[in-house]
Amino acid sequence: xxxNIFSKNKKNKIKNKSKIIIDIHxxxxxxxxxxxxxxxxxxxxxxxxxxxxxxxNIIIERKEINDFYSSLISKRLDKQIINLKKIKNKLILIxxxxxxxxxxxxxxxxxxxx
Length: 114
Hints:
By secondary structure, the protein is of the alpha/beta class. Helices cover about 30% and strands about 25% of the residues. It has one domain (about 15-114): Rossmann fold (3-Layer(aba) Sandwich). It starts with 17 loop residues before the first strand and ends with a helix.
């Protein structure tokens, strides 16, 4: 099949959209808001049993630094890590800097868990 690259008709372009599945609990996060208008991405909101995002068979657990700390203290992080260990391709993404944690803590608590 030939395509006229000079045509103003955009229908001729064939694009494969990358699919990103986002857990429904992340719906109000800024990340989906940034991704949703990208024409090269297909965004699907779905309940994920493990992680927050599924991209190319990689499960991503996204933690903002304050959430990482509170998950660590509540032991929720340990449960999430146990579930992630069952997944072949996984990633934990920690956003932010330790100095921005709202509580006074010893940074070694965070470094030790990482």
